[in-house]
């Protein structure tokens, strides 16, 4: 695919191949997660919108920015460090940190795009359920606290196995570019029921 960066695949190694006494564990190497742990791409100045990944993404083409849908006042992007395949973020274009700071038009589209994200993920991958939510402020768990974003996380039975609980690792069975393409193709803007 031309100029796209190479993606390192997760590898499983048998514990018996390591030096020392085998411990009975297998290792799933997910080197892409180290960037998140180290704070890669996290703004050093949260108030500087030029450093904000949610302000930069709309300026890129859809594939490079992982943009799934563009609206008038808000857009939908894949989470670069997803909990599950299809983990979407609904973001206003405007660099605001709080839900209560959205204007009426932004609030309406933000809500409509959250609904459309759920419907589109249902069509694209038929999850058993969803986690929807916003973390307001760093103390509440927002990784990028200065730019409001709503998480739309598809969930399946058994997706929270021992890896996230014990190893703080998530195994993802699909590349982000493939997920973006599949969800964008299934995107719907269905109107709410009357």
Report what the structure shows.
With 194 residues, the protein is of the alpha+beta class. The chain has a domain of 132 residues: HIT-like (HIT family, subunit A, 2-Layer Sandwich), CATH 3.30.428. 27% of the residues lie in helices and 16% in strands. It contains 6 helices and 7 strands, in the order E-E-H-H-H-E-E-E-H-E-E-H-H. The protein has a 5-stranded antiparallel beta sheet. Strands 1-2 form a two-stranded antiparallel sheet. Strand 3 and strand 4 form a beta hairpin. The N and C termini lie far apart (44 Å). The N terminus is likely disordered.
Question: Brief description of this entry?
Answer:
It is built from 6 helices and 7 strands, in the order E-E-H-H-H-E-E-E-H-E-E-H-H. The chain is an alpha+beta fold. The protein has a domain at 54-185: HIT family, subunit A, CATH 3.30.428.
Largest pleated sheet: 5 strands, antiparallel
Shape: globular
CATH topology of the domain at 54-185: HIT family, subunit A
Instruction: Please tell me the CATH architecture of the domain at 54-185 by its name.
Output: 2-Layer Sandwich
Low-confidence stretches: 1-7
Helix content: 25-40%
Strand content: 15-25%
> Radius of gyration in whole Å, from Cα?
18 Å
Please report the number of helical segments: 6
The CATH superfamily name of the domain at 54-185 is HIT-like
Q: Tally of extended strands?
A: 7
């Amino acid at each position: 695919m031309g100029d796209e960066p190479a993606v390192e695949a997760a590898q499983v190694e048998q514990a018996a191949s390591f030096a020392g006494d085998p411990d009975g564990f297998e290792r799933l190497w997910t080197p892409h997660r180290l960037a998140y742990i180290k704070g890669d791409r996290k703004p050093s100045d949260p108030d500087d919108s030029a450093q904000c990944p949610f302000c930069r993404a709309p300026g890129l083409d859809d594939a490079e920015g992982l943009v799934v849908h563009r609206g008038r006042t808000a857009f939908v992007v894949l989470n670069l460090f997803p909990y599950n395949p299809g983990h979407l973020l609904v973001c206003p274009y405007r660099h605001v940190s709080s839900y209560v700071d959205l204007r009426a038009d932004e609030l309406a589209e933000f809500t409509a795009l959250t609904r459309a994200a759920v419907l589109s993920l249902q069509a694209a991958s038929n999850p058993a359920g969803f986690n929807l939510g916003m973390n307001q402020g760093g103390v509440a768990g927002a990784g990028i606290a200065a730019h409001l974003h709503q998480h739309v996380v598809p969930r399946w039975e058994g997706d929270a196995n021992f890896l996230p609980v014990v190893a703080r690792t998530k195994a993802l069975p699909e590349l982000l570019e493939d997920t973006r393409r599949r969800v964008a193709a299934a995107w719907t803007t269905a109107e709410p029921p009357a």
